[in-house]
Amino acid sequence: MPDTVNGPDGKPRCGWCAATDDFFPYHDNEWGFPVDDDQRLFEKICLEGFQSGLSWRTILAKRENFRAAFKQFDFNKVAKFSEQDVERLLQDAGIVRHRGKIEAVINNAQRAREMVKLEGSLAAYFWQFEPKESADTAPQSVSTSDVSTAISKDLKKRGWKFVGPTTVYAFMQAMGLINDHVQGCVTRSAVDKARKRFKRPSVR
């Protein structure tokens, strides 16, 4: 995969956008921009869990279906899902019908509610792990890090599921805890500016 590929406007983007034109708007408007909204953070950690063993292209294509199935990833609502809801979702062809992953979302919604009580917000929890910028690691050259491993271990200790180090690293990339756009990508500088403006949430 090349480091960059030209987008519709002829300007270079991260090479993974070459997989499908659907990636360009996601890449330009979402991936890597810092997020402090708990619902979006919960959605992303869940979707990254669903991606395990699959491609993000598959998950992105079904994202609106996932949102409808899981109440827009409002974890206060999802936490109340029952076994009947699990069976219903296993019949939903619009999502990935994997019992373990569906049950993990419901479990993680319950754990998210606990985390908000303890930490104040999901945003406060995740952003306390923001790593210091380092020139030692080239963008998109690794799939895990010491930080993603630490978050994964802590989440599992708290009872979360489908949150391995690779899943957490992809979450960190997407939610802006790091800027992993490649050098030469036109969106990299936009993400840098957004990260500088971003007000980090604090733990309660």
Automatic annotation (TrEMBL):
Bilayer-crossing regions: none
Classification via Pfam families: Adenine_glyco
InterPro entries, sorted: Adenine_glyco, DNA-3mA_glycosylase, DNA_glycosylase
Protein name: DNA-3-methyladenine glycosylase I
Organism: Microbulbifer elongatus
Lineage, highest ranks first: Bacteria, Pseudomonadati, Pseudomonadota, Gammaproteobacteria, Cellvibrionales
